[in-house]
Amino acid sequence: MRPALAAAALTAALAAVLHVPAPAQEARLPDIGSSAATVISPSEQAEYGAMMLSQLRYYGYTLEDPLLLSWLRAMGQRLAASSDDPKQPFTFFLLRDRQINAFATLGGYIGVNAGLVLAADHEDGVAAVLSHEIAHVTQAHVLRAVEQAQRDRVPIMLAMLGAIALAQGAGGNSADDATMAALASAQGLMVQRMIDYTRSNEAEADRIGIRTLSRAGYDVDAMAGFFQTLQASVRSNISGSREGTPDYLQTHPVTTSRISEARERARQIASAPQGFVPTTSQRDNLLLPSSLRIGAALPAHGATGLFPWARERLRVLSADTPAAAVREYERLARSGELDDAQRYGQAVAHYLDGKPATAATALAALLERHPGDTWLELALAQSLARAGRTEEADARFEALVARMPHSRPVALTYAEMLNERNTRAAGNRAQALLRPLLAGAGDDPVFQQTYARASEIAGDPVRAGEAYAEAAFLNGRPEQALLQLNTLKRRDDLDYYARARIDARIAAITPVVLELHRQGIRDEDINRR
Predict the structure, then answer these.
(1) CA angle 247, 252, 255 (to 5 degrees)
(2) How many helices (H) and strands (E) does the chain have?
(3) pLDDT digits over 497-519, tens only?
């Protein structure tokens, strides 16, 4: 079977399994006797979400920038903590695609396309979309869709991997294109279009999402405002084709009445007694008198204040090339004077385009207007290091470390610059920066890769090997990770603790690899040897 046809066959079969629409349910009823939570256990949901993310990483769809992820995750976790189920774990990640889209899938994994952030005018709009997707998870809309599709165990991510494996197995010059086509098709089916949300699902997610926005201190009108922005993008679609419609609107249709309903819900929350935002448990608890008003104190915070920097950094990192990003800013400058955030983005583009001195000059001027800004400080230190002004760069990095000793973006950015020097002293310093953060970096491939390189040049091959294997696993290469760990285990200089760590990871990764083999999926690079 030709790879494209094979991928199409698998994804079509997958669509048949997953695209069974959930029954309409206009009123929210108590969840009595529902089997949704038993279709796929919480641990299996987390495994599917993690496998999906690892595959998106492997094929280069994700954007793993430490600064952008720290911004997105701070916003997402703040909203999640203000949701109706604050104990539900969430993982927020970015995709470099400039299509306007966001999605939620099993295990609380929520992805946001670069295009959605670029389409927003302020952070509240992005927060509105995140709060809506969080509600799809907390209200079990994702899980119910899977239950409705098939009550037995649904190997969602493995089916996607199967499409990729068939495309890869064909070999030849077209294999890479077929693989990417298979992944894109599968991603569209599995993630962005896996759920045909009913009208009641969407209304419930809007209602609960707006309440979450309010609890987190964001503008409750932001959801209706962002819906209007999306609607305007449809009107600008001259052809009127589905292909020209943002992906988000294909899975979350927006109508004038829906916008009006969102505005009315926002008005009701805004006019409620100050500080009172009822939670689901308060609203539905029949043991409490209806007149009782238990307030959930509204946080004083709202937007992070980082949105302008984040949007421009995302504009640069989602561009096809740094040179393309530079040209994009040149076009923006022809339409009007660039603001400070856009100048920051332009400087980052110049830095990535091999012009660190130009970037350093622009960033130094911006810092005079925004003294102490972390994003500007980091970009300037990077530019100075690449421009050969090492002592100045290190002084700035060390000042940032002293000011924010537990900052992941600061530690990672400085460590990456140190690793580029390829000296034992630089490796030791990079290790020292990253070691305090190691315990919380188990799901962070960029951290693991950076720590591995630092350990390698510092002369610590065991730690380097462990971290390289972890990075491979998180980037969708579990078979390669297992091979690296088994090779590392044969070293005769392992102490008791290192051997115990390696044995534990081998025991955890082996079942994943065996299941992939059972599905006929093998790492092509390993099997060519």
Answers:
(1) 115
(2) 27, 4
(3) 999 999 999 999 999 999 888 88
**Cα–Cα dist 405/433, whole Å:** 8
DSSP for residue 373: -
Residue 118 structure tokens: 């670029």
State percent of the chain over pLDDT 70.
73
Q: What is the bridge-based pairing of β-strands 62-63 and 102-105?
A: unpaired
- Helical segments of 405-495, H only: 408-421, 424-434, 445-457, 461-474, 478-489
CA dist 254 and 231 (Å) reads 7
DSSP state of 245: S
Q: Tell me the residue type at 488.
A: L
d(CA 92, CA 108): 8
Residue 341 CA to residue 121 CA, distance in Å, equals 13
Q: Which two tokens stand for residue 484?
A: 């690296």
Could you tell me the two tokens for 37? 């939570």
Quote the CA–CA distance of 121 and 109 in Å, as a whole number: 25
pLDDT at 178: 54
Residue 173 tokens read as 């010059």
Phi, psi angles (nearest 5°) of residue 242: -65, -35
The Cα-based distances of 440 to 52, 85, 110, 452, 523 in angstroms read: 21, 23, 20, 15, 28
Q: Which domains does the chain have, with CATH numbers?
A: 3-25+37-273 (no CATH), 307-527 (1.25.40.10)
Positive or negative, the CA dihedral 176, 179, 185, 186 is negative
Long-range CB pairs of 189-192, under 8 A, 24+ apart, other chains included: 189/11, 189/14, 189/15, 189/18, 189/19, 189/160, 190/14, 190/18, 190/52, 190/105, 190/156, 190/157, 190/159, 190/160, 191/52, 191/103, 191/105, 191/111, 192/101, 192/103, 192/247, 192/251
The partner residues of 63 in beta bridges, in order of sequence, read: 94
pLDDT of residue 248: 75
Confidence of residue 227 (pLDDT cuts 50, 70, 90): confident
Q: In the predicted model, is pLDDT for residue 326 greater than 90?
A: yes
Other Cβ atoms closer than 10 A to 333 = 13
